[in-house]
């Protein structure tokens, strides 16, 4: 079960769709059957379009043509984006948009007298968290930038805006005393599916699926090992952001640094934590597209993760839609696909982690 903001939006689309469906069933039954199939895909498709517009506007401000158009086009026509939203109708594009917008606001906040952007980042982050809890990956970036501002009033305002927004969106469930809903959102979503990986092309994908509570050499569980590795990488990211925090940088360099950091923050838990599904890397894609257009050193990383995400989605779909007579071939080819995808992702992530200090450091010259 999902947090409230997605439920409210899905209910609105459902209401509009139901009214439209009744009219179509009466006059155009064939069109009604198609509308019934696609109406719930409209919401993620709309957010994909919004993300494409965001990429276009941000790049148009900071880089020269044709990169703004190339960036927006690469995102909107990216096979992984099309499969996830238009083919499957999953909601990943919704919180991905809010996460990307949060990173952009943080980048814009890195300058004198830009406090409103930081408060706005906390507001957008609240909307992201109220869409999907996976959005908490942005907490380290918000914390670091808030600390770098060294302004208690702005920090209190940002946290207060976040808390009030979350409380407002959850208030109908609080007033109705739907404690079962909170149990689903905050407890079961983290405790169900306790396996090393659930179809994800990450470090754990190279091995057999096993309970995440299994211990390695009888010392530490797989889940705790993933959490330890994730914590180390988070500290690595925060250290380099804070280390470079005192430097006076241009706005385009600050934005580039925060977008790169946001992309790493989204990729890192997917690669290291247990219980990851194939779609949990989705929020990294728009940030990787932005980062690649702002910093050409990340073009290969963006293309690589887009490729493996696409292959990961196809890997899962072949199991879902393949017939019984095809399973032997599907299983054999999927094993090779999984090994290739996992190894490529591990290589990309290792390079990203190793080069992170250089990538988030402000450069003397702008990419524009």
N- to C-terminal distance: 43 Å
What is the N-to-C succession of helices and strands?
Answer: HHHHHHHHHHEEEHHEHHH
How much β-strand is present in the residues? under 5%
The profile of the biggest β sheet is: 2 strands, parallel
Average residue-wise pLDDT: 88
SS-based class: mainly alpha
**Rounded radius of gyration (Å):** 21 Å
Side-by-side strand order of the widest sheet: 1-4
Query: Which stretches are poorly predicted, pLDDT < 50 over at least 5 residues?
Result: none
Helix-strand blueprint:
Blueprint: H1 4-27, H2 29-38, H3 42-62, H4 67-76, H5 79-87, H6 92-109, H7 115-129, H8 139-149, H9 152-175, H10 179-191, E1 197-198, E2 215-216, E3 220-221, H11 222-243, H12 251-272, E4 276-277, H13 284-294, H14 299-321, H15 327-360
Parallel strand pairs: 1-4
Antiparallel strand pairs: 2-3
Helix pairs in contact: 1-2, 3-4, 3-6, 3-13, 4-13, 5-14, 6-7, 6-12, 6-13, 7-8, 7-9, 8-11, 11-12, 11-15, 12-13, 12-15, 13-14, 14-15
């Amino acid at each position: 079960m999902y947090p409230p903001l997605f439920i409210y939006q899905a209910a609105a689309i459902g209401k509009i769709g139901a009214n439209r469906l009744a009219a179509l069933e009466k006059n155009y039954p064939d069109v009604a059957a198609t509308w019934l199939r696609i109406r719930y895909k409209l919401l993620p498709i709309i957010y994909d379009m919004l993300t494409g517009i965001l990429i276009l506007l941000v790049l148009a401000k900071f880089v020269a043509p044709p990169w703004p158009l190339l960036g927006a086009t690469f995102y909107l026509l990216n096979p992984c984006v099309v499969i996830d939203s238009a083919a499957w109708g999953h909601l990943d594009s919704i919180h991905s948009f809010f996460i990307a917008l949060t990173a952009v606001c943080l980048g814009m906040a890195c300058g004198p007298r830009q406090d409103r952007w930081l408060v706005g980042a906390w507001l957008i982050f609240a909307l992201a968290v109220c869409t999907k809890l996976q959005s908490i990956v942005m907490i380290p970036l918000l914390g670091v930038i808030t600390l770098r501002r060294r302004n208690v009033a702005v920090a209190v305002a940002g946290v207060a805006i976040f808390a009030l927004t979350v409380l407002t969106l959850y208030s109908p469930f609080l007033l109705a005393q739907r404690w079962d809903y909170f149990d689903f959102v905050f407890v079961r979503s983290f405790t169900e599916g306790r396996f090393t990986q659930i179809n994800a092309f990450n470090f754990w994908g190279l091995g057999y699926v096993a309970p995440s509570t299994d211990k390695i050499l009888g010392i530490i569980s797989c889940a705790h090992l993933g959490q330890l590795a994730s914590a180390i990488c988070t500290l690595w990211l925060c250290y380099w952001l804070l280390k470079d925090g005192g430097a006076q940088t241009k706005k385009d360099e600050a934005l580039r640094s925060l977008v790169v950091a946001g992309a790493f923050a989204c990729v890192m838990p997917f690669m290291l934590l247990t219980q990851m599904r194939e779609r949990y890397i989705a929020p990294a894609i728009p940030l990787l597209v932005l980062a690649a257009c702002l910093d050409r050193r990340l073009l290969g990383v963006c293309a690589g993760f887009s490729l493996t995400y696409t292959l990961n989605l196809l890997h899962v779909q072949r199991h879902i839609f393949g017939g019984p007579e095809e399973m032997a071939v599907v299983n054999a080819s999927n094993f090779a696909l999984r090994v290739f995808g996992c190894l490529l992702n591990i290589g990309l992530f290792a390079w990203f982690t190793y080069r992170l200090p250089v990538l988030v450091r402000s450069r003397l010259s702008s990419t524009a």
